[in-house]
Amino acid sequence: MATLLSKCATQDNGQIQHITPANAGWKYVGFDLFRLQPGQEITLPSDDLERCLVLVSGLATVVTTAGTFERIGQRMSPFERIPAWSVYVPHHSPARVKAESELELAVCSAPGFGNLPPRLISPDLVGVEQRGKGRNRRLVHNILPDDSPADSLLVVEVYTNEGDTSSYPSHKHDTAIAGCETALEETYYHRFDPPQGFCLQRVYTDDRSLDECMAVYNCDVVKVPRGYHPVATIAGYDNYYLNVMAGPVRQWQFTWEKDHAWVNSDKYPRPER
Hints:
Layout: E1 5-6, E2 15-19, H1 21-24, E3 30-36, E4 41-44, E5 49-57, E6 60-64, E7 67-72, E8 86-89, E9 95-99, E10 103-111, E11 119-121, E12 127-133, E13 136-144, E14 154-160, E15 165-166, E16 171-172, E17 185-193, E18 198-204, E19 211-217, E20 221-224, E21 231-233, E22 238-246, E23 255-256
Antiparallel strand pairs: 1-20, 2-3, 3-10, 4-9, 5-8, 5-10, 6-7, 6-9, 8-11, 12-13, 13-14, 14-22, 15-21, 16-23, 17-20, 17-22, 18-19, 18-21
């Protein structure tokens, strides 16, 4: 099995993914995914991590030190393609989440160090944009971009239609180059419609010292410690992924792979033949 691929595995507490800096072999990004039944609860500790709680699907009540957010949520499937409800929880702040329906809850984490309060991120606060053209198009929901308050975390949802590519042309964000590129670790939590689908994701560096191509199935996570990381969907299956990024500088700046950057130009799409 590819070392960068974390397969879905259900635990007694409903947890199906558990990515930490320790088990990923990096420094910043943590990611947990819970599938909870109505009435089931989880408690998040007061520690040195900030968290963004994303309701991938379902309804929940979230209790924080700033108050209780009652029965938040709207979509019952991420493929409704409306922005998620989320809650930002700073470090040294506990939280409790109660499922008010079947709940798919992502807990995105990274080091915290500031003085931000807990806050609700409602769908109207999520930036929505279409990116790309031709067979390289995607719908983006910017839940926690670098112009929204947080200490380390960047969180975004992406939808890619069947047969299309995304996170493409190949780009990387693994080297600190002032004004050009930032060093960010990243996780991809994948979902498919219909759920038996899969996509292909490759993670590779210029010198190919890292070069892995993975068949990614429903609820799997791909870890991107460095390098380029494009996604290619398969005919018949739409793809959703939730990205979590963090690093020493909280800015999303990246470099295109030179060989494929032309896909951004007027030369693409090529004329039909």
